[in-house]
Amino acid sequence: MLLDQAARAGAALTRLGVRAGDRVAVHLPLVPESVIATLACGRLDAIRTTLPVSLTIPELAARLRESGARVLITADAAFWDGSVRPVKPVLDHALARSTAVDASRLPHTVLVVNRCSRPVSWKPGRDRWWHEELAED
């Protein structure tokens, strides 16, 4: 099942324009999709860049600019210490902060893993659901 999901994720990343040598930023908590993204990047010879979910907004903004990632994979939210904490809202703030500096170095696509079924801000044309992209295969 894991290998099947990795093949689907690899196909989705290919459709999004990821090629060998491209960077894919992963901003996920410890979830299966993080491993799937790693395997998918390996299939494509893409470079997986980790953006820890514990980063502050300024730290995340700097790492996003430095990453040069074509695609970014994140989650809507995550469970920590028995509560639900935002992940994508923090990322959106970091992306907005980075856009003011240099939008050309930011990801073109953000794949969002639905972890907590919570309302999430959405930027049409950039944001896409992970499960929908993997289902297109």
UniProtKB/TrEMBL annotation:
TM helices/strands, residue ranges: none
Domain AMP-dependent synthetase/ligase: 2-89
Single biological process term from Gene Ontology: acetyl-CoA biosynthetic process
Keywords per UniProt: Acetylation
Entry-linked Pfam families: AMP-binding
Residues annotated as signal peptide: none
InterPro entries cross-referenced by the UniProt entry: AMP-dep_synth/lig_dom, ANL_N_sf
Single GO MF annotation: acetate-CoA ligase activity
Cellular component GO terms held in the UniProt record: cytosol
PANTHER family hit by this protein: ACETYL-COENZYME A SYNTHETASE, ACETYL-COENZYME A SYNTHETASE 1
Annotated protein name in UniProt: Acetyl-CoA synthetase
Source species taxonomy: Bacteria, Bacillati, Actinomycetota, Actinomycetes, Kitasatosporales
